[in-house]
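User: My instructor asked us to take a sequence, write out its structure as tokens, and then describe one feature of it. I'm not sure where to start. Here is the sequence I was given:
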Amino acid sequence: MRLPTSRTPWLGWCALGAALVLAGCGATAPKPTVSLPDGSSRAETPAERAIQPTSAEELRELVRSVKALLNLSPDIARSQFARRIPATDPAQDRRWLAMAGQLASFNQLSPTTARTVMQAQIDASNFAKKGFYEQWASSPSTLQTRPGLEARVDNAIGTFIKAVGEAQVAMKQPGSRAALEAIALAEMPNRTALSAQTRSIALAPLLALAQP
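Assistant: Let's start with the prediction itself. The structure tokens for your sequence are:
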């Protein structure tokens, strides 16, 4: 004859186990990430999540175009330094501004807006180049400039003006200014003493266009 047994304790343990599993799943849920051009990823910032995904992506492309242009500053500085051209080259600055103005109509931008945002990139590049010149006064750079510098600069300017045009609607969204700042800090970190001020100069007119 079988003795009666109670299944209630076992049911209780099963329920407890399920609850722990569910709690564990919540604790280890992956945080939203953003894919970077080099194939790596970073955590998505709260400010990015606060605006529409399409707008956040357009702002990311805008920041990356700013970064790509600024990343050419060392090569530009080396080229000018080798030819004994001052860090600030007015002829080059005028060419960059003229190019931005010409590209404006192809990217639904007013020439004034295109030149304003381009002037900020020029000012940021010149600031960075002056910093390199000060370093090289006592210890000149021995690195060689990669060929095709002018074409790379022209491509970077074209990409930047295009990104500004495509981000116009995104920058009209409430919260876009905070998102732009957060993206820039995440993707243009303070790696050198020049980083923070260079980034600030380059982004100033773009932040002015964005909504708080």
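For the description part of your assignment, you could build on this observation: The first strand starts at residue 33 and ends at 35. Try explaining in your own words what that tells you about the chain.
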